Structures are given as C-alpha cells and as structure tokens.
Amino acid sequence: MKRYAWAVLGLGLWAAGVGVGVARGQGSSPTAELKQNYPNPFNPATTIPFSLHGELFANGHRPKVSLKIYNVLAQLVAIPLLQGVGEQLDNLELTCPDAAGCSFEAYWDGNVRRTSQQAASGVYLYQLVVDGTRYTKKMVVMK
Predict the structure, then answer these.
(1) pLDDT digits over 46-104, tens only?
(2) Alpha-carbon gap, residue 68 to 50, rounded angstroms
(3) Counting CB atoms within 10 angstroms of each CB, which of 16, 27, 59, 116 has the fewest?
(4) Whole domain around residue 137: which residue ranges?
(5) Model pTM score
(6) Contact, 21 vs 51, CB < 8 A?
(7) Nearest CA-CA partner of 50 in 65, 35, 70, 36
(8) DSSP letter at 38?
(9) CB of 69 within 8 A of CB of 37?
(10) Using an 8 Å Cβ cutoff, are 85 and 65 in contact?
(11) For 23-37, what is each residue's pLDDT tens digit?
(12) Distance between CA atoms of residues 20 and 16, nearest Å
C-alpha cells in the first residue's frame, strides 16, 4: 500500500483524489470534465470522452491538452489518440467553434507505448491535463 500511495502522490492524485473528473474555474461552471472510459472494464480497446467548457477558448485561447495512461506505480503506459485527428494527446492545442464548449474523445488500443504489446489485466489511471489543471479517473483492463 505504501508503494501505491507514493505512486499516486507522484502523479499529483493524492490531493485531488483518484476519480476526480471535474474541476471548477472561478465561476460555478466546470471548465473541463473527464468522463468515464467505455467500455469499462475493457479488452482490447477503450474510448475516453472529455469535454472542455467554452470559457477555455475565450479570446482565441487554445488550451494545451494532454491525456496519459499510467499503471498504479505511476509509470507511463500510453498516450491515447484524439479521435478524428489521429494525433497523440500530448500537449495538443485544441480549438472549439462552439462558444458553449466542445466534447472530444480519445482512443486507446490497449497497447503499451514502448513495447506495442497489450497491457496486462489490472487497474490503470488516466489523467487529462488542461492548461496545467489535472483531472484523473481509473479504468480496468480485463482479459
């Protein structure tokens, strides 16, 4: 348990709490929402939806967005692809034509980044970072 706690602390999840998916800006409306992946549990692939509120795009601002998947030891496992674009979600500057905000989906094929082998069964954390603010949830790979 001690090892897991340090891993979670290293990802900045301890204060936020694992499973926190919504952060609030200065107003009462959420600035981003990280939703639960589906299917969950999954094998071999999953989709990770998230939405960004329109206030993030005010005055032509393009928020920098990253989405990364970690194992419970806080080791980077994969960087999903942004659906419709096909680019890895690693510091991508996103745009949104709708003043109310936009919804996005990321796709993970279940492969480990460096080895291209399928991820082992178990619990994984996925973390969305929008302009430095973190949103985290967990998912399960089941074989």
Answers:
(1) 999 999 999 999 999 999 999 999 999 999 999 999 999 999 999 999 999 998 999 99
(2) 13
(3) 59
(4) 2-141
(5) 0.82
(6) no
(7) 35
(8) B
(9) no
(10) no
(11) 544 444 568 999 999
(12) 6
Report the pLDDT value the prediction gives residue 116, as an integer from 0 to 100. Answer: 83
Measured CA to CA, the distance from residue 34 to residue 49 in angstroms comes to 7
Number of structural domains in the chain: 1
Rg of the chain in Å (alpha carbons): 15
Range in 1-5, 48-52, 132-136 with the lowest mean pLDDT: 1-5
Cβ neighbours of residue 30 under 8 Å, at least 6 residues apart?
22, 23, 24, 53
CB atoms within 10 A of CB 60: 6
Question: Rounded to an integer, what distance in angstroms lies between the CA atom of residue 65 and that of residue 57?
Answer: 12
- Closest by CA to 35, choosing from 93, 103, 133, 101, is 103
- Residue 32 to residue 29: CA distance in whole angstroms: 9
Distance from C-alpha of 119 to C-alpha of 70, rounded to nearest angstrom? 11
Contact 123, 72 (CB under 8 A): yes
Distance between CA atoms of residues 143 and 108, nearest Å: 16
CATH code where residue 27 lies: 2.60.40
